[in-house]
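Kindly inspect what follows.
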Amino acid sequence: MYCITPAAGQETRLSGAGNADRADRENHMKRHDLILTLTFVLVWMIQTSVVHAVETSWENELSSEYQECSVYYVVVVSFMQAEAKKPQPFAPTEQINAKVAQYMETANKYGKVALEVGEKVGLTNDAFATRQSMLTQKILQLFKGNFSNMGVLASRYEDFCRKLWNEPNLRMQEIQSGHVCDANYKCW
């Protein structure tokens, strides 16, 4: 390697030791750059994973809540249909049938949204069906097989499901801030 010395203006050759020092510095800089690049990539990957996990978590919860509302309406429909077959139903059969049609349409709307949101986070049809079964059992336990317990279910689900449908962004914000419907937090 050659350089120009400013004082003499002559070209001089660097010694072998100088070349080795320079090569060591260049290798050190390359290692430093590689470490910085790898650190940046690693931090980016971790950050992306955390963001994805958070997004997946709230989307999964939202999907589950839509599905729970869907199941609620299906359970109510099944009990209404059973009631309509009794010799003395709680209301005229035509009224019950109209309500059944309305509730089934509502159940289908909620179920469709639950599946669409769930698919975004990788929810399979099998997992959806399993969750559907678990939610059905949960609601049936609240219902206790008695139509007179309808008030218990209605107070728990009617307002919540209506607000979930009408104000999904509000519910999404609540979920993202950690307000999941459980014993510690009553949704709406």
The chain has five helices and two strands. Residues 42-176 form one domain.
